[in-house]
Amino acid sequence: MQVVPGYGHGVLRKTDPRYTCQREFALKHLPDDPLFQLVSKLYEVVPPILTQLGKVICLL
Hints:
Belongs to the citrate synthase family. This protein is mainly alpha-helical.
């Protein structure tokens, strides 16, 4: 297992700028990479779920 920089407690309040930079790079250069696709999907799906569960005060 590897750590994905930009994910952690801080992402519950504001997206880590390191992740934003990595995401922009991956969108441009690695859009079909399976690992990037998984992380990207989690980035889209998980925050609204956490918000519904009351685990997040504010997002992004």
